[in-house]
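Dear Dr. V.,

Thank you for agreeing to look over these. As mentioned in my earlier message, I'm a first-year student in the group and I'm still getting used to reading structure tokens, so any feedback on how I've presented them would be very welcome. I ran two proteins. I've put each sequence directly above its structure. The first is here:
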Amino acid sequence: MTMSELRAVLAANGGAALHFLLPDGDLVPAHFHVTEVGRVRKDFVDCGGTRRTAESCVLQLWVADDTAHRLDAAKLARIVGLAAPLLGEADPPVEVEYDTGFITQFPVTAAEVTPGGLLFHLGGKHTACLAPDRCGVGDAACAAPGCC
């Protein structure tokens, strides 16, 4: 899901309760807070020597002891709106940063309108070789000079 898609689903569902479904099927507790909305840019060189850039909008979710706290779509839309100057015209993919015993980032893969509110589906992230043609991925090892 991109930032423009997130904004649209929040605007279309103003007072809806928000729920985040983790990849393992668990829900983030309903009393979560959104403590950060950030534009994250990563500039890097892959193992094949190619320069790359990755950019995303990260929503940090945090759970405190205030179990009566609830955030609805309209409130999240206002919070996201505060980050508009940081995002500019960019329409990056949206990720959720959440502490599941260690900090993890989950891409937001879908939003579903349910009788209980908006359900955001979170996917997983994995590492991968970005230069498989140079590294011989699929062979026993990355044997090419300057690779992996």
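The second protein is here, in the same arrangement:
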Amino acid sequence: MNGKKIISSNKAPKAIGPYSQGVVSSDHIFLSGQIPLFENGELCTGTIQEQVGLIFQNIGHLLETQNCGLQNIVKLTVFLKDIADFDAVNSKMIELLEEPYPARSLVQAAALPKNVDVEIEVIAGLNKNGAK
């Protein structure tokens, strides 16, 4: 293993526990689960699509710290409080992501931090030679 490098962005909400916003290791970026928080830590209470949009905005800020973007995502895990939001989340993800889409798991969770409706965690690949 090449060790690990901790990443963070002041454009994304700070971690709300004893964890890092993200870690780079072995040509990959591993982001902690992101919930719909604004940069100031305030919770977004809009529609599920607005919440997913904010989460991906925060994911983008974290990926940018490594000269990467949403196109670098290789695996997503989506946790939903209510599986009935499945179609709305898919619709927003089609809007935000380009083909070929990353691999994904989507599960209904009994409870999420701060009682949010959605949490998304990401694994992304680093660009070779720092290219974007």
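From my reading of the second output: DSSP finds two helices and six strands in the chain. Residues 5-130 form a domain with the 60s Ribosomal Protein L30; Chain: A; fold (CATH 3.30.1330.40). Does that match how you would interpret it?

Kind regards,
E.
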